[in-house]
Each structure stands twice: as structure tokens, then as C-alpha cells.
Amino acid sequence: MSYYSILNLNKEPFSTSPDPYFFYPSTSHKQAMQRLEIAIRLRRGLSVILGDVGIGKTTLARALIQELHSTNGAITHMILDPSYDSEFQFVTILAKLFGIKGTFRSTLDYKEAIERFLFKKCVDESHIIALIIDEGQKMSLSTLELLRTLLNYETNEYKLLQLVIMGQMELLPKLQRINNFSDRISLKYILNPLDYNETKNMIEFRLKQAGAASGKEIFTEKAILTIYQYTQGYPRKIAAVCHNLLEELVMKDKRIIEEDLVNEVMEKDRKVVLVS
Predict the structure, then answer these.
(1) CA dihedral angle for residue 132, residue 135, residue 139, residue 144, rounded to 10 degrees
(2) Where in the chain is the domain with CATH 1.10.8?
(3) What are the angstrom distances between the C-alpha of 211 and each of 9, 12, 229, 246?
(4) Could you tell me which of 90, 30, 93, 41 has the C-alpha nearest to residue 63?
(5) Three-class secondary structure of residue 109 per DSSP
């Protein structure tokens, strides 16, 4: 039996997978989501979201896709790893992603086919096409050059492709190396870690989403404060620590997570890091 079943939960509350069902909208994440929706709805073109590892960029991206589908009817595509060796490989992937059929012999042929596709979908059929690229810092300069070309496809009123790039902070200097790329950014937003109250709210939100009974205390205030101090408000780390804590709670047959248990689990975590 899973530990969460023993705790009378319906789902695992602290998986580190980017499940939008467990997306907690902190102030920073909520603002990013709202600004992205506005930029995409107004067809502004390029949006860039920056943040450290574990800040919640991928979960934000998946939550954005879900929101766009439910409210705006946008057609969205996502690339999880943009590590492509050449422009030709990238345009081949894009054409396949967009469902463009045909035989194309060169990068130029692919670019022209993509432009025709975007014009048909976005102008003739009035769709919004959004491409979300995660791990943007992995993109080569040739891939960025190609994206710059795609951002040139536009009408007098709007960009045909709505491009969202999620990446770590080192993405920004890479973008600045491409001529006329940075000035195409319509939205640049940096995600911040959660504060203490948001950390507490995230833990309670995830437990509630997993089916925890309302008003039932599983973590004490001091336990949550210790978790916050250890994780510094990074959502992925919060989820990982809380997952380990719930497992320990079950194995030790305890009813509530207190500060001493958090310290014990954190000490184990530190030892694992040192060994690895």
C-alpha cells in the first residue's frame, strides 16, 4: 500500500513531476501566468521566463498550456529539450510538431512551409499558435537564429507565432548575443522563490489537492518554518523534502510531522548529497 493511502490521501501530494493539478500559484508564478496569457492573447510574439533550477518553470508551462486550452482555444506545442545540432534538424522537428506534411530538401524549404502554415492557421483561420520551449538555455546559437527568423513572420497587427522560452538565468546573455533578438522580447519575467507564507500555503494546497481532510494538521508551524529555511522556497525542493517526510511519518507510525523529524530527514538528505 502507498504511503499516501495510509494517510487517507487519494494521490501522492508531493511528486516532483510537473503536474499542473498540483501547481501552486505563488505571487510570482501567478503574475507570470497572467502576463503570459495576455501576451499570447494579444499575439505579442516572444516571451521569456527566467528562473533557477527547481523554481517551477516546467510546471508553469504545463499549467499555461492547460489554461490556454480552456480559455483561449489556442493551439499549443511544447519542446522539452531544444538541444538540436543544426537548423535543419530543428525545422524538421518543428514541421513534424505542427503537422506540416510534404517533402522538403532544405532549411529554406522548411521555413517557407512553416510560414505558409502559420499564415493559414493564424490569419485565414484566426487561430493562436503558441510554441513553448523549456530548458531554453540549452539552445544553440543556430537554433536561436532560426527562432529570430520565425518571429519575423507577422501581419501589420500581430506576430504569427507566439513563442514562450523558459530557461535558467544563463539564457539571457545567450539571447543578447543574437543581433536584434533581445529587442523582440515583449515579456521578460524572472520567477522568484516562495516566501515562508507561500511555502506553508503550497504544502497545505498540495495536501488538499491530494484529498487531505480540511483542518487536519499534518505539519506543525515549526516544521514548516524549518522546511522553508532548508529549501529557501524552491518548489521542487519543498516537494521532495515533504515527500520524504510523509514516508518517514508512516514508517515511524507517527501522526504529525514536527521539527525534530524535519531535522532528521534533512540530515539524511545532506549525507546523500555529500556521498553523491
Answers:
(1) 30
(2) 3-17+194-275
(3) 5, 9, 27, 14
(4) 30
(5) helix
Q: How far from chain centre, in Å, is Cα 158? A: 25
CATH topology of domain 3-17+194-275: Helicase, Ruva Protein; domain 3 (1.10.8)
Residue with cell 520565425: 150
Class of domain 27-190: alpha beta
| pLDDT tens per residue, range 118-161 | 999 999 999 999 999 999 999 999 999 999 999 999 999 999 99
DSSP tag of 120: I
* Integer-rounded Cα radius of gyration of the chain: 22
Residues 29-83: pLDDT tens digits? 999 999 999 999 999 999 999 999 999 999 999 999 999 987 777 899 999 999 9
For the CA atoms of 249, 254, 260, 263, what is the dihedral angle to 10 degrees? -10
Q: Which stretches of the chain are DSSP H helices?
A: 3-6, 27-41, 57-71, 87-98, 107-119, 141-150, 171-176, 196-209, 221-231, 235-251, 259-275
The residue to which cell 555529500 is assigned:
274
Per the confidence metrics, is the pTM higher than 0.85? yes
Question: Using CA atoms, how far apart are residues 23 and 59, in angstroms rounded to an integer?
Answer: 6
| Nine cell digits for residue 45 | 510574439
List the grid coordinates of 234.
524552491
